[in-house]
């Protein structure tokens, strides 16, 4: 910590980049703070960094300092339409790892066509806040293991909420689940946003795929939001997840944003 990197600045004043804590770097030029860098470790263990600087040259100075101080691999995310930020990270040696689509999802069943959707025979939907915590956590761990064994959990939407080590279900009240007889077989997690709720995760056990359970969970979640007066929700989908993309687009969700995850190895 407290490593110092000094280089020529933008107006012949030296830019001094100092690591002021385990996770923060400040760039100072002529006694003025001209940029900051931040590192944060996601719950999946990966180290993400971000840089806020007014000038490209200062960005490069901070990036050089952070790369010198931190172990690789390092990750960052950028809006795919922000070409300046993407170019700056590429100058620092980052390359595109994956793309995540952001969808604006209507809740009105007249638009989604989900008003008549019912769970398959033998399956019931347990509303958010009513699921038993132990079976919910067991289902969550099973689904995570199944995803990790196939496409890898890192292809799922980025999770940034801090949580104790080993804890994956942070707030059980945010989950609605699909129950078959006495087993939980699928789940949907809703997370609040400032202006609209977010569909954080929708997943079904691998041995119960292609039975309409995910569609029934989505119908329940969106229907509940509609009844509460919420017009739309937000969802992120990895572009390689064809099933999830098809599900959301089939109910009238609109692709409204794209985010690139970059990596430096």
From TrEMBL:
Coiled coil: none annotated. SUPFAM superfamilies: Acyl-CoA N-acyltransferases (Nat) (SSF55729). Gene3D superfamilies: 3.40.630.30. Residues 123-265 form the N-acetyltransferase domain. This is GCN5 family acetyltransferase. It comes from Streptomyces incarnatus.
């Amino acid at each position: 910590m407290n490593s110092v990197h000094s280089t020529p600045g933008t107006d012949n004043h030296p830019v001094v980049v100092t690591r002021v804590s385990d996770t923060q770097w400040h760039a100072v030029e002529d006694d003025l703070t001209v940029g900051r860098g931040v590192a944060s470790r996601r719950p999946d263990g990966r180290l993400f960094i971000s840089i806020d600087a007014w000038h490209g040259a200062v960005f490069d100075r901070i990036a050089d300092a952070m790369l010198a101080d931190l172990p690789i691999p390092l990750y960052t995310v950028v809006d795919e339409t922000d070409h300046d930020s993407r170019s700056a990270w590429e100058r620092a040696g980052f390359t595109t790892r994956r793309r995540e689509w952001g969808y604006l999802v209507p809740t009105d069943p007249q638009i989604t066509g989900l008003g008549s959707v019912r769970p398959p025979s033998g399956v019931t939907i347990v509303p958010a806040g009513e699921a038993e915590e132990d079976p919910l956590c067991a289902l969550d761990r099973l689904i995570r293991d199944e995803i990790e064994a196939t496409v890898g959990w890192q292809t799922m939407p980025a999770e940034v909420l801090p949580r104790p080590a080993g804890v994956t279900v942070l707030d059980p009240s945010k989950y609605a689940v699909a129950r078959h007889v006495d087993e939980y077989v699928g789940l949907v997690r809703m997370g609040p946003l400032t202006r609209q709720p977010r569909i954080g995760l929708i997943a079904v056990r691998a041995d119960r795929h292609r039975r309409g359970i995910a569609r029934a969970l989505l119908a329940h979640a969106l229907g509940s939001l509609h009844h509460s007066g919420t017009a739309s929700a937000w969802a992120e989908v990895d572009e390689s997840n064809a099933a999830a993309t098809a599900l959301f687009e089939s109910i009238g969700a609109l692709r409204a944003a794209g985010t690139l995850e970059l990596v430096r190895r």
